[in-house]
Every structure is written in C-alpha cells, then in structure tokens.
Amino acid sequence: MLLRILHELTGVSVRLLGSLVTIACGAAMSIVFLRWCRDRVDSTVARCALVTLLLYPYAYYFMGAVYADALFALLVISAFLLLDHDHPIWAGLLAAVATATRPTGIAVVIGLVAVVLWKREVISRVAGRTVVALGNLRRGDAGVLLSVGGLLAYMGYLGVRFDAPLAFEQVQRAPGWDQGGGPRTWFKVTWFQQIKNLPGWTISWIQHGDDATFQKVQYASTVILQGLMIVGFLVLARLVWTRLGWGYGLYCFALLAIPLVGTKDFQGAGRYLMAAFPCFLVLAMALAPRPVLRWAWWSVSGAVLLLWAFAFGRGYYLA
Predict the structure, then answer these.
(1) Is residue 319 assigned to a domain?
(2) pLDDT higher than threshold 90 for residue 103
(3) What are the CA-CA distances from residue 102 to residues 96, 97, 105, 235, 237 (Å)?
(4) What integer pLDDT is reported at residue 172 of this predicted model?
(5) What is the band of 317 on the pLDDT scale with cuts at 50, 70, 90?
(6) Structural domain tally of the chain?
(7) Average of per-residue pLDDT values in the chain
C-alpha cells in the first residue's frame, strides 16, 4: 500500500521505490534502535548492539530487499521507545501500523502490554507471593491496546475482500506450504527430515553437481540454521527477561512462539527474529567486554550475511 501511494505521487517505479523505502526504513531503524539501547547501556555497548544487529545473517532485509521487515522493525522499536518515555497512546497508534503489516504483530501487542505492567510494577513478588496492583496503572496506559487495531483492521479487510478474516492462517495449509496446525507442524517433523536427508543430498550433489540437488542442500542448510537460531534466541530471551525486565522478555518469547508453533521447518524464522531487538542488546552486553569474541562473532556473522545476500540476489529461497 505504501509503495502504491508513493508510486502515484512520484511516478517512480515500484521496484525502485521498494528498495529505497527499505533502505530508508533500515537507516531510520538503526537510529531508533541505537537510541533505545543508549537509554539502558553506555554508548560503547549500544554501538556494539547496532553492529551486531546490522551484521546479522538476514540483515540484508534491512538493506534493499523489498520486504516489510525494515518497516516493521522501525515501527516496533519506535513504539517501544515511545512507551519507555511514557507515551503509551502514541506507542499504541504506531504499533497498530506495525500489526497491520503482518499477523505476527500480535507479539507486539503482548509485548507492549507486558512492558506497561512491568514498568508500573503491577505484578510483583512479595514474601514469596504474587501481588497484583492494578491501582498502579494510569488511565493513558490503556493506549497500548490501540496496537491491536491494525491487526483487526487487516482481518476486517480480509473478511470483506475474501470472506476469510483468518486467510493468513488458512493459506498455511495450502499445497506447497503444508504447515497447517497439528502435531506434524508443532513437532517439526519436516525439519528433522531435512537434517536426516542433508548428508545424502550433499554427497549426491558433490558427485553429480546438479542444480536440483543443490537447491535441496541449500534449503535444508538454511532451515537447519534457522532452527538453531531459534534455540539461541530462546537463551537470549531468557537473558532479556533477567537483565532488561520481564516485559521485554515476554515480548521476545511471544515473538519466538510464532515460528515455534506455526512453522513446519522454521523457514522464515531467520528474518522474523530481527524484530526481537532486545536480544541483540543482551548479546552485545556479552560481546562488548570480550574483543576477541566480539570480532570473531562479527566476522562469522558478516561472512554469512554476505553469502546470504549473494544467494538472495541469485534467487535462492532463504527465509
């Protein structure tokens, strides 16, 4: 929709506009993320977090790929930054735009509500008991609930246009995707099959060098990597919970729950994880005081980023 509006206003091709908008959103996201980090840590650690995020293997989605990930990340981080500075209504409105861009935005709604409850100390532990103090909430805090409006508006559009408000969920069962809800998806049967088949496919490709087998090797390698990333981010989310507060921790866990429950082989998780921005800060907190580990991490991550960007440019299905 944004590209269509800009095309009508400027006459510039949609393809070029898509890349320009992604680059602009990625640059703006970097500024906002750095500001969010500096509210919590010193400038050195904040810059380390930004570099770690920008060298993430799927960060090319911030750098010109015509996907909504850069816009989504910009909106989400900005919403949390506004909430941190006690602007819950503006945070809710901005997050509503984010939730309208993708159904996974439901994690943003959960995160904003959780951060409000954490900031106001609505839920606390006293003498081993859980105490709920709703009186700590302010009237304006309800503004974060506006964030669900974007998702509801999108569902309303799907209902009017296609008579299917949950079309985004129904399409997952379509042939080719084959990842409707059920034990096969929940327990990642397809993902484990990819692990089982990868050695044989690799040997076959080395022996014959055919493109069809190479694509199987490439796909299996990327989904296995994304599954391992999920495990790593679960560890980071736990650190977010303890170091940055349970509100941000719950947001990260909610975001991770979507590919954990909704994908058959973790395909797509790599780029969805970019929205788990607090995880990059706690990772930077571990890397910043360890220069050897930090440069080793950046080198490996940056090398994979370059490889993935090249493969994406060649048309391979990476996430």
Answers:
(1) no
(2) no
(3) 11, 10, 6, 25, 22
(4) 79
(5) confident
(6) 1
(7) 93
Q: Which of 123, 130, 136, 24 minimizes the C-alpha distance to 71?
A: 24
Beta strands in the chain (DSSP E): 123-126, 129-132
The Cα 164–Cα 162 span in angstroms is 5
Q: Which domain holds residue 265?
A: 2-313
Look at residue 191 and tell me whether its pLDDT is greater than 80. yes
Query: Among 70, 87, 6, which residue's Cα sits nearest to residue 33?
Result: 70
Q: Beta 129-132 vs 123-126: how paired, if at all? A: antiparallel
- Which ranges of 11-137 would DSSP assign to H, the alpha helix? 14-38, 43-54, 69-84, 88-101, 106-119
The predicted structure's pLDDT at residue 315: 86
Rounded Cα gap, residues 157 and 165, in angstroms: 7
Alpha carbon distance 303, 305 (integer Å)? 5
What is the spatial distance between Cα 86 and Cα 39, in angstroms, rounded to a whole number?
13
Distances 74 to 33, 97, 211, 285 between C-alpha atoms, Å: 8, 11, 37, 22
Residue type, 86: D
Residue-wise burial string across 273-308, b where 16 or more C-beta atoms lie within 10 A, e elsewhere: bbbbbbbbbbbbbebbeeeeebeebbeebbeebeeb
Identity at 174, one-letter amino acid code: A
Give the orientation angle of helix 88-101 with respect to helix 148-162, to 10 degrees: 30
At residue 319, does pLDDT exceed 80?
Answer: no
For CA atoms 269, 105, 64, 51, give the dihedral sign: negative
Half-sphere exposure of 122 (CA within 13 A, CB side): 16
Q: What is the pLDDT of residues 116-138, one digit of tens each?
A: 999 998 988 777 777 888 888 99
With respect to residue 302, please indicate whether it lies within any of the assigned structural domains.
yes
204-253 pLDDT, tens digit per residue, is: 999 998 889 999 999 999 999 999 999 999 999 999 999 999 999 999 99
Q: How would you class 28 by CB atoms within 10 Å of its CB: exposed for 0-12, middle for 13-18, buried for 19 or more?
A: middle
